[in-house]
Amino acid sequence: FRGFRFTVAWWAYTFPMTAAAIAAIHYSHELEHPTTQGMAAFLSFISASTVFALFVSTILHGFIWRTLFPNDVAIAITYKRRKGQRKGKKGSGKTLHVTSADSLSNGIDKEHGDNSSASPIAS
Q: pLDDT tens, 10-19?
């Protein structure tokens, strides 16, 4: 997966994969044969491995690298300046940009410095 960017949408693959594994388990209980039992074990292993890998990726991207929602404007909270944006006032420290869906429709951006007593979520 080195060439693919991780997104939360990857979790959508786990539902049909797990459903197929559960169906194979039920099928192997009805038709007890080594082939059906092997198929159930294989699909269960693939499903559990996929869920575990996505869980680890989600934890890494969400809490370690903080890149879980890089392009989601509705919940974008960042300490980085956007392209073409001026630096904040001198002495204000970092600038926290909070962009919400409401502010996008109005064309308004709210900015709060680190020393500000205002809540970054307040409207």
A: 999 999 999 9
